[in-house]
């Protein structure tokens, strides 16, 4: 499964359509619950993300703009801002890399890369994978030596720890925990829906 097919797949599978829930910080123009304008999100794309991609002020967007977001643009946003912009395209593409990209879609791409750099015990944690840099080389090495399944399992554990810590800091987000857990479980070997078998599709 190439990255374009994967992005379309995870947006369809996990994001659905328009969300206007006021408890979701991403649905607000400021990125903070109750602050600014409730713009909502569509296909998982928030107003702030759409504004960054289109290079316009977030204040210029309305909920109608979010509602009219084409699916194809949502996929383009994911690839441009959450994959290429932080250098995930410099990592070997495999099932574990797909989970790293998916996690960044919710937690933020730089957060995802920093967590990967922590996993790899990199001396510099800067949220970016440079071409032929230490993070890319270390990731390729661990995938080759330990295997992609090992890396996916270690990454799953870090995702779960992140979500649990987030709920401790923001108890109102506990309503999302089961969904987050289901999503991270989906990327582990042996999952009932057969993600690892689907990879070759």
Q: Explain this structure to me?
A:
The structure is a single chain. By secondary structure, this protein is an all-alpha fold. The chain has helices at 3-15, 47-54, 63-67, 71-84, 95-107, 109-119, 134-146, 148-169, 177-186, 195-198; strands at residues 18-19, 41-42, 45-46. The termini are close together. Residues 9-108 form the TtsA-like Glycoside hydrolase family domain. InterPro entries: Lysozyme-like_dom_sf, Peptidoglycan-bd_3, TtsA-like_GH18_dom. Residues 112-183 form the Peptidoglycan binding domain. Pfam families: Glyco_hydro_108, PG_binding_3.
List the helices and strands and how they pair.
Layout: H1 3-15, E1 18-19, E2 41-42, E3 45-46, H2 47-54, H3 63-67, H4 71-84, H5 95-107, H6 109-119, H7 134-146, H8 148-169, H9 177-186, H10 195-198
Antiparallel strand pairs: 1-2, 2-3
What are the main properties of this structure?
201 residues; mainly alpha; three-stranded antiparallel sheet; 3% strand; globular; Peptidoglycan-bd_3; TtsA-like_GH18_dom
Strand order of the largest sheet: 1-2-3
Give helix % range. Answer: 55-70%
Largest sheet: 3 strands, antiparallel
Computed Rg = 17 Å
Q: Unreliable segments (pLDDT under 50, ≥5 consecutive)?
A: none
Summarize the structure.
This protein is globular. With about 200 residues, it is mainly alpha-helical.
């Amino acid at each position: 499964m190439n990255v374009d097919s994967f992005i379309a797949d995870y947006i369809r599978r996990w994001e659905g359509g328009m969300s206007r829930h006021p408890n979701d910080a991403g649905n607000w123009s400021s990125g903070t619950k109750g602050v600014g304008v409730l713009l909502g999100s569509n296909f998982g794309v928030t107003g702030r993300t759409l504004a960054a991609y289109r290079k316009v002020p977030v204040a210029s967007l309305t909920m109608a703009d979010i509602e009219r977001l084409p699916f194809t643009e949502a996929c383009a946003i994911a690839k441009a801002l959450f994959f290429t912009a932080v250098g995930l395209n410099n990592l070997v593409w495999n099932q574990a890399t797909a989970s790293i990209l998916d996690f960044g879609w919710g937690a933020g791409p730089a957060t995802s890369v920093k967590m990967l750099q922590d996993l790899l015990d990199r001396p510099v944690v800067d949220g970016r994978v440079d071409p032929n840099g230490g993070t890319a080389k270390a990731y390729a090495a661990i995938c080759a030596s330990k295997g992609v399944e090992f890396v996916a399992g270690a990454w799953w554990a870090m995702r779960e720890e992140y979500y649990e810590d987030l709920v401790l800091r923001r108890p109102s987000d506990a309503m999302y925990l089961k969904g987050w857990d289901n999503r991270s479980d989906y990327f582990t070997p042996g999952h009932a829906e057969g993600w690892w078998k689907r990879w070759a599709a």
